[in-house]
Design a protein that fits this description.
- 70% of the residues lie in helices and 0% in strands.
- It is mostly helical.
- It folds into two domains: 3-32 and 55-224, no CATH class; 247-408, no CATH class.
- Helix 6 runs antiparallel to helix 7, helix 7 packs antiparallel against helix 8 and helix 12 packs parallel to helix 14 (343-371).
- The protein is globular, with a radius of gyration of 24 Å.
Length: 409
């Protein structure tokens, strides 16, 4: 079989497992929620543009919105562990297999980047910061996105994990610096020359570390993580087969869970805390909380800030429900003296407590705005009360739903 056809077959096979679940996702109400959010955002954004503050830091907003989307790059290769044996003889011909991988890894993420750019551009025009036309911005974003994708692909080939981490940090710094140079440009040709010099230096720097011809282990780990992430998102709405997720060593959180009483009744609690600390879900929750605090701070002077606050509590809670499927089909749970029927209770207890803590953390921007005299104390207090009430409602809903599912099983 040709290598390009092999990848196409694997891609079709994977999405053939995902697509049957999509009708259930739509039936869960996510389509209605997205439509309501789109309507609410459109109404708010229109009124915001009409009364936009003159001192709004548009350049910083543009950098925060576009920076992560420009730098982030990921690839779905559909490489499998058995390929180390069966495809190794064709290692020198793997460019045929990987060529559509690179193209799809750029184009799909570029669409999301362009969507955010087109959404934010009216704000740039209203502020008077649009020194160059929109098409020039889109061309620059295409160039930076392609450069970041090239760097991310080279990082996968680097032999040592420490060097990969260093070059990932270097890529973030270079791409963000070039994007900032274009956003804050005083003369377009100076910014373009600066970006060109940085790009050349970055490409030359990528030639120094030792690389594999095909980094089989890195590609297998990256593909396993990508597949698990897709199934985890589906798991928010329907039950899907559990897949192994990437385990991240976080030594600074190694003490988490150690104070859990060493009893049979709390064994699963200990396992749950350790799993959460070392999973990708923790990173997702942290990034979501930081983004939420930023947006709440920007909109916290009005009722829209309360709506954003409630929305992020709901989204965070939805993310945390992925812990319900942790170790459901894993033999690791058999190593611990877990009592029968204790899993759902422990998951519900852990998610609820963590969500209460995140509710207070997300409320901090509203508190700061009120203390600074730019917000209403009554509105801020009402927002906190609504957030805590939402957590209680979510806990009751989860308890009822999960109990019904367990009784059916």
């Amino acid at each position: 079989m040709e290598l390009k056809a092999l990848r196409s077959q694997r891609k079709s096979s994977f999405w053939g497992q995902i697509i049957p679940y999509l009708p259930y996702v739509m039936q869960s109400g996510v389509a209605v929620v997205l439509l309501l959010l789109f309507i609410v955002f459109s109404a708010w954004y229109t009124s915001f543009l009409k009364a936009m503050p003159p001192d709004l830091p548009v350049q910083w907003i543009l950098l925060i919105l576009l920076g992560p989307l420009t730098v982030y790059s990921g690839f779905r290769t559909y490489i499998q562990p058995a390929d180390v044996i069966f495809l190794l003889p064709q290692e020198t011909k793997m460019k045929e297999y990987f060529s559509p991988v690179y193209f799809s890894g750029v184009i799909y993420k570029l669409l999301a980047l362009y969507f955010v750019t087109l959404t934010a551009w009216p704000m740039v025009v209203r502020s008077g910061e649009a020194a160059l036309p929109l098409w020039a911005m889109l061309v620059i974003l295409l160039a930076l996105k392609s450069l970041s994708a090239y760097g991310a692909w080279q990082e996968l080939r680097i032999t040592t994990s420490r060097a990969r981490t260093g070059y990932r940090l270097l890529r973030w710094c270079f791409i963000l610096l070039m994007l900032a140079a274009w956003i804050w440009q005083l003369a377009w040709w100076k910014s373009l020359l600066f970006m060109l010099l940085l790009s050349v230096n970055y490409i030359l720097a990528l030639r120094f570390p030792m690389k594999h011809t095909v980094a089989w282990e890195n590609l297998i780990a990256s593909e396993r993580s990508g597949a698990a992430r897709a199934l985890m998102i589906l798991g928010w709405f329907v039950e899907v087969p559990a897949e192994g997720q990437k385990v991240i060593r976080r030594r600074w959180l190694s003490l988490a869970g150690n104070r859990t009483p060493w009893r049979r009744s709390t064994a699963y609690r200990y396992l749950l805390i350790k799993t959460f600390v070392r999973s990708e879900l923790l990173g997702i929750i942290v990034r979501l909380a930081l983004l939420g605090m930023l947006l709440i701070y920007w909109t916290g002077h009005s009722w829209m800030g309360i709506a954003v606050y409630i929305f992020f509590i709901f989204i965070t809670g939805t993310q945390l429900t992925a812990l319900r499927f942790v170790h459901r089909d894993s033999p690791a749970a058999s190593y611990y003296p877990i009592m029968p029927g204790i899993r759902m209770k422990e998951v519900l207890r852990f998610i609820s407590r963590l969500l209460f803590v995140l509710t207070f953390i997300l409320w901090l921007p509203l508190l700061f705005i009120s203390v600074a005299g730019r917000g209403d104390w009554l509105l801020s207090s009402a927002g906190l009360a609504a957030g805590l009430l939402l957590v209680l409602i979510l806990r009751l809903a989860w308890s009822k739903k999960w109990s019904a599912i367990e009784n059916e099983d």
